[in-house]
Every structure is written in C-alpha cells, then in structure tokens.
Amino acid sequence: MTAADTRTAMHAEADLAAESTGDGAEGNGGAVPAARAVGASRRRAPAVRLARKAAVAVAGVALIVAGVAMLVLPGPGVVAILAGLGLLGTEFPAARRVSQRVHGRLRAAWHTIRRRKNA
C-alpha cells in the first residue's frame, strides 16, 4: 500500500464518520469535509487535549527520571532519556528542539567513532 492509498483510505474513513454524524450542510446530504470534521472534534474536546498533554508530560518526565537512574543502575539509561525526550517532543516544542539537538550530536559522535574504527 502506497502513501497515496493510505491517505485516500484515511479520507474515506473520515468522510464516512462525518456522514454518520449528520452534522453537514443540507445541500450535500449531510456530509462534512474530512478536514472540518477533524477540526471540529479537536475544538470540542479541550479537556481531552489537556489530559493528553498532561499524560504525555508525566510519562516523558518519568522516562527521563528512570533513564537518569539507569545511568548508575543497570539498564539502558541513555535510551530511556532519549525516549522520554522524544515523547515530550510530541507535545512540547522546546523538548522537540532539545531532542533534535541531542540526536544531531549523537549522530555526529557515531560517525566519528565509525571513521576511527574504519581507519
């Protein structure tokens, strides 16, 4: 399945969902464009967005704290810290910037190690 097929399937599902609600304009049989249907559901649920943001924040911070603990205890500390940053980056732009910066530095360090190993 190509990316275009996936987008088409998603739009078809959104159109079906919009038609089943019956909240559309009268002239088109009650259908609501997919973009409007998705946007309307986001506007209707600010409490859900806030709960999601809080859950992501708690889970991300927990991963980072666990990762810091695993730096001195057995376990993949660096991986947990990066996972926590990645999770926080889904909701918070500052965390996304930090995650991208750390990712870039780790990638550069990895390439330096690989060059030394091959030389």
Keywords:
transmembrane helix, transmembrane, 119 residues, mainly alpha, 81% helix, membrane
Folded structure, characterized:
InterPro entries: Uncharacterised_PGPGW_TM (IPR019099). The protein has 2 domains: 3-44, no CATH class; 47-118, no CATH class. The longest helix is centred in the middle third of the chain and has 27 residues, at 46-72. The protein has 5 helices and no strands. It is elongated and about 60 Å long. The model is unreliable at 18-26 (pLDDT under 50). The two termini are 42 Å apart. By secondary structure, the chain is mainly α. It has helices spanning 3-21, 34-44, 46-72, 77-89, 93-118.
Concise account of the structure shown:
The chain is mostly helical.
Q: What is the terminal-to-terminal distance?
A: 42 Å
Number of helices: 5
Mean pLDDT: 75
Number of strands: 0
> What is the gyration radius calculated from CA atoms?
22 Å
Helix content bin: over 70%
- List the helices and strands in order: HHHHH
Describe the largest sheet.
none
Stretches where pLDDT is under 50 for at least 5 consecutive residues are: 18-26
Number of domains: 2
- SS content category: mainly alpha
Strand content: under 5%
User: Per the principal axes of the C-alpha atoms, what is the gross shape?
Assistant: elongated
